[in-house]
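If it is no trouble, can you show me the amino acids of a protein and the tokens describing how it folds?
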Amino acid sequence: MKQAVDRIMAAVAAKEGPGRLLVAIAGPPGAGKSTTADALAAQVAGAVVVPMDGFHLDNSVLAARGLLARKGAPETFDAAGFAALVARLRGQDEVVIPVFDRSRDIAVAGARVIGPAAKVLLIEGNYLLLDEAPWRGLAPYWDLTIAIEVPIAVLETRLTQRWRDHGLTDTAARDRAMGNDIPNARRVLAGSVPADVTLRQD
């Protein structure tokens, strides 16, 4: 992890200027995006992490659209709302953002404030580099893009364990990972544009 963080820090330092820097950290579910972003934020002055997860559609909306079992797929996010947030983060000193509460499985509006002291925004999410509409429309906002690539076999193990940690049985955890998370992971790995920096894990 230290080597990866050092590599990203060097790339961030090369891009920094007088304005706010928007860094996209993308990768499949279970790749370690949040861990990487948090490690980087701890070492870069003025850096804050902005997760995409606050734009999950509510379960009631997903159920009405027949998408509840696919929660986490690209079409289960408010992509337009997220794009509007990224535009505001670029142009406004203070922006209020939603945050996803995993314990309640809901997005909470107005849960955090990104203020003028935040000079490096580490925006992390699965689909930031996805070459599909409407996600590809985010590309002009990024000053630096980072992709985390992990072999599917490793992701299967991690994601199954993640659902076990949420209280699912071994069978239910594997079914959840293989039925939804892994298809999403394959979509990210196969359909994302190249990043400025790619971190590959074995």
Helices lie at 2-15, 33-41, 59-64, 79-91, 152-165, 170-191.
